[in-house]
Amino acid sequence: MTATVVRHSNGLSLLINDKQQAAETAAGFRITMRGSQERRNPEEVDVELRPGQPAEGFPKSRKAGGRTYHYRIDVESAGSSGDLHVLKAWADAGAGHVWIEQAGAAEGPGAPDFGLAWEVAGGARAQN
């Protein structure tokens, strides 16, 4: 796989592979797995560089790319489709924080693994 660095004018940069595509947003990027856009629930993750620090409420932590991400998984009812699980994670980035968010429906019991979010988090860097 080929790796590419995408850079945002706010100082956020991401290392993505050739199976992923990046669309720039106001505060970062939306990363989508190529070919998943046609699916009912495309596999995508939002990554942003935000000011300050988030409020409390992130009881778990995990390392990715040498950073400690604090996270939680919210569960929302998605009607007949079952439950929607939303990973919300952040890591300190000097004067601000890197924010990662991915939603996914569980295939069977439990939550999705959020592999794309953790992979992207590992390649996120911020200069602010």
Brief summary:
The chain is 6% helix and 55% strand. A hairpin with a 5-residue loop joins strand 7 and strand 8.
Unreliable residue runs: none
Assess the beta-strand content as a share of residues: over 45%
Identify the overall geometry: globular
Averaged pLDDT: 90
Question: In which range does the helix fraction lie?
Answer: under 10%
| Biggest sheet architecture | 7 strands, antiparallel
Count the strands? 10
Total helical elements: 1
Structure characterization notes:
It is built from 1 helix and 10 strands. The strands form 2 sheets. Strands 3-4-5-9-8-7-6 form a 7-stranded antiparallel beta sheet. The model has no long low-confidence stretch (mean pLDDT 90).
Name a few traits of the molecule.
128 residues, mainly beta, 1 helix, 10 strands
Topology diagram in text:
Elements: E1 3-7, E2 12-17, E3 20-24, E4 28-33, E5 44-51, E6 60-64, E7 67-77, E8 83-93, E9 96-105, H1 115-122, E10 124-126
Antiparallel strand pairs: 1-2, 2-10, 3-4, 4-5, 5-9, 6-7, 7-8, 8-9
